[in-house]
């Protein structure tokens, strides 16, 4: 009798636990669905500004419904010449677009070899004769240095930074380095909450601090805290971990009001390739990657080194001759996906760079695979986005410096202004697919005439025009005579 009671209680407890967990999952699913019940999307500017000694960090509001729907955070960093962005890592994969300038970027992976070596006598390093970038021939005090690869970055580059990978950047050019990035917080690599979390090895909030969006800062306390991670550790344990004197450990923990971008007192000297050499290396890496794809899946026992350690992390998306879609009358589109930059397969992200000529159209279409986070780099355009109920959730001009989200399956159309329109679009899929409504690859071309005539109550002649009037164009549509005369 006692055993049967225990069995009954156990069964009841299991049922209650199952129901409780079921409700929890149902509630979570409902909450996520509510995040994309968008009534209105707006083209927005950053709402928070963090001043540092060497530049400015601007953040778009994560509380904005459109960014919550896409599950992303957006950042714009403006680095002054000779500034250093201090080493950090973040909680989700990050895709970066270099809008302006040039510089050096380092990304470190645990377990990868330190392939860049300085030569104390000659200043050369490694194969291909890499040398110290900056003045002088060797490091401070004439000491040797060795480290993981340093990349030359320039305007138009798309850079892939996996979650948890430590990275830093130095502006060694003569103009400001402007980098716009999107972090995919919904990615499975992030097992924390849906907030941007940055972890810095050094630095501290700048003397001028956060000058805008103070209310937003209170709501999102700690989303981009620039205090370094060493300061809370016990100093003696830290010193023992590195096997260094206490004084050195204290330097790791010291407070600073210089911010997350600092001015370098003297020109930095790091082992890095020349610009021409860097892009020669990229060509070689592309050839190797093609051969690797032909060979099929990796069979090396050291799979990690065969992937992350040697994998390309950047691709220039602004090269005219490499356009994926091109029209002399409408513009061009360049795409970087997992086929061009294989590391994106792991990050499940991609990017699109577009240029529309004055009054040209980006065909009405929807994305089958991803949310799109669109940042305007030049010009302006009339953008319309329509949701599932046929309601217009976005119907306004998008201008330079603004950002907006086109959710998955929402249909959009873009018409460039009189000065043209340029943008970069960050996507939450490594192999994005779009379904156009007009042009020779459109869904109307695929539909039988009778389906169109009966669906829209039109004549076969009208249906023929819908199917074939843009017969030689797709995605990028030249302006009609009527729209040209109106402009």
TrEMBL record:
<dbReference type="GO" id="GO:0010431">
    <property type="term" value="P:seed maturation"/>
</dbReference>
<comment type="subunit">
    <text>Hexamer; each subunit is composed of an acidic and a basic chain derived from a single precursor and linked by a disulfide bond.</text>
</comment>
<dbReference type="InterPro" id="IPR014710">
    <property type="entry name" value="RmlC-like_jellyroll"/>
</dbReference>
<feature type="region of interest" description="Disordered">
    <location>
        <begin position="204"/>
        <end position="224"/>
    </location>
</feature>
<feature type="compositionally biased region" description="Acidic residues">
    <location>
        <begin position="275"/>
        <end position="288"/>
    </location>
</feature>
<feature type="domain" description="Cupin type-1">
    <location>
        <begin position="315"/>
        <end position="464"/>
    </location>
</feature>
<dbReference type="GO" id="GO:0045735">
    <property type="term" value="F:nutrient reservoir activity"/>
</dbReference>
<keyword id="KW-0758">Storage protein</keyword>
<dbReference type="InterPro" id="IPR011051">
    <property type="entry name" value="RmlC_Cupin_sf"/>
</dbReference>
<dbReference type="InterPro" id="IPR022379">
    <property type="entry name" value="11S_seedstore_CS"/>
</dbReference>
<dbReference type="InterPro" id="IPR050253">
    <property type="entry name" value="Seed_Storage-Functional"/>
</dbReference>
<comment type="function">
    <text>Seed storage protein.</text>
</comment>
<feature type="signal peptide">
    <location>
        <begin position="1"/>
        <end position="22"/>
    </location>
</feature>
<dbReference type="Pfam" id="PF00190">
    <property type="entry name" value="Cupin_1"/>
</dbReference>
<dbReference type="InterPro" id="IPR006044">
    <property type="entry name" value="11S_seedstore_pln"/>
</dbReference>
<keyword id="KW-1015">Disulfide bond</keyword>
<comment type="similarity">
    <text>Belongs to the 11S seed storage protein (globulins) family.</text>
</comment>
<feature type="domain" description="Cupin type-1">
    <location>
        <begin position="41"/>
        <end position="250"/>
    </location>
</feature>
<feature type="region of interest" description="Disordered">
    <location>
        <begin position="275"/>
        <end position="294"/>
    </location>
</feature>
<keyword id="KW-0708">Seed storage protein</keyword>
<protein>
    <recommendedName>
        <fullName>Cupin type-1 domain-containing protein</fullName>
    </recommendedName>
</protein>
<feature type="region of interest" description="Disordered">
    <location>
        <begin position="116"/>
        <end position="149"/>
    </location>
</feature>
<keyword id="KW-0732">Signal</keyword>
<dbReference type="InterPro" id="IPR006045">
    <property type="entry name" value="Cupin_1"/>
</dbReference>
């Amino acid at each position: 009798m006692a055993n049967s009671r225990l069995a009954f209680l156990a069964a009841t407890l299991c049922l209650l636990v199952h129901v409780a967990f079921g409700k929890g999952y149902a509630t979570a699913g409902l909450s996520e669905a509510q995040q994309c019940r968008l009534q209105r999307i707006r083209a927005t500017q950053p709402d928070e500004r963090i001043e540092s000694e060497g530049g400015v960090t601007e953040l778009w509001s994560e509380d904005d419904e459109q960014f919550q729907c896409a599950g992303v955070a957006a950042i714009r960093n403006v680095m002054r010449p000779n500034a250093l962005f201090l080493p950090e890592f973040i909680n989700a994969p990050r895709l970066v677009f270099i809008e302006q300038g040039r510089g050096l970027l380092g990304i470190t992976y645990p377990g990868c070899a330190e392939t860049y070596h300085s030569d104390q006598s000659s200043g050369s390093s490694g194969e291909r004769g890499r040398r110290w970038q900056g003045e002088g021939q060797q490091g401070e005090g004439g000491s040797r240095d060795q480290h993981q690869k340093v990349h030359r970055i320039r305007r138009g580059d798309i850079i892939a930074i996996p979650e948890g990978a430590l990275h830093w950047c130095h502006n060694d050019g003569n103009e400001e380095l402007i980098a716009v990035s999107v972090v995919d917080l919904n990615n499975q690599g992030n097992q924390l909450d849906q907030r941007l979390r940055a972890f810095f090895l050094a630095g501290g909030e700048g003397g001028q601090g956060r000058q805008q969006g103070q209310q937003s800062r209170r709501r999102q306390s700690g989303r981009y805290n620039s205090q370094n991670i060493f300061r809370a550790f016990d100093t003696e344990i830290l010193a023992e971990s590195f096997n260094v004197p206490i004084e050195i450990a204290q330097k790791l923990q010291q407070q600073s009001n210089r911010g997350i971008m600092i001015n370098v007192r003297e020109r930095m000297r790091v082992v890095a390739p020349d610009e021409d050499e860097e892009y020669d290396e990229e060509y070689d890496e592309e050839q190797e990657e093609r051969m690797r794809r032909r060979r099929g899946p990796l069979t090396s026992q050291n799979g990690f080194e065969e992937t992350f350690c040697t994998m390309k992390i950047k691709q220039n998306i602004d090269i005219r001759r490499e356009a994926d879609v091109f029209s002399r009358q409408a513009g061009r589109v360049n795409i970087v996906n997992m086929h061009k930059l294989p590391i994106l397969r792991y990050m499940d992200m991609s990017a699109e760079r577009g240029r529309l000529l004055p009054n040209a159209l980006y065909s009405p279409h929807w994305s089958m695979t991803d949310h799109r986070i669109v940042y305007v780099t030049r010009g302006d355009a009339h953008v319309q986005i329509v949701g599932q109920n046929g309601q217009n959730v976005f119907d306004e001009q998008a201008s330079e410096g603004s950002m907006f989200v086109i959710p998955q399956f929402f249909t959009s159309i873009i018409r460039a202004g009189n000065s043209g329109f340029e943008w970069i679009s960050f996507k939450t899929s490594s192999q994005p697919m779009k379904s156009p409504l007009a042009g020779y690859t459109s869904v109307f071309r695929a539909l039988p005439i009778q389906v169109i005539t009966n669906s829209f109550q039109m004549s076969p002649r009208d249906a023929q025009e819908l199917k074939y009037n843009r017969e030689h164009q797709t995605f990028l549509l030249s302006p009609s005579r009527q729209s040209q005369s109106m402009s």
